[in-house]
# Entry
Amino acid sequence: MKKIVLSVVAASAMIFSTQTMTAQEVNAEAEVAVEQTEQKAEWRQVEVAELPAEVQQAVERDFAGAVIAEAHVKEKEGEQKFKLVVQTAEGEQKELYADAQGNWIDKDKKDK
# Structure
């Protein structure tokens, strides 16, 4: 009888611990999704025609034959920064960052 009671207690403990671990994993996944949404919310998609002429000219000058597929803008500390997805003449897709004057921003420093 003692073994049966211990078996039931052990089985119950395993069930409850498994449910707790699953709940923790779900909470962690939800937190990651919220962080990703907040990061994406910083960038607002704009039409390519809305880009400053300096940015468009920088793409033409430095990436001859490239086409801007997507354009996004983020305002931080009163300055506009642009994220561009361009299709190069070689068919390669690149993600570029620039300021409003058409100066390229190093990807590693884009959020600083």
In short: The chain has a mean pLDDT of 82. The CA atoms of residues 63 and 87 lie 9 Å apart. The chain is about 45% helix and 25% strand.
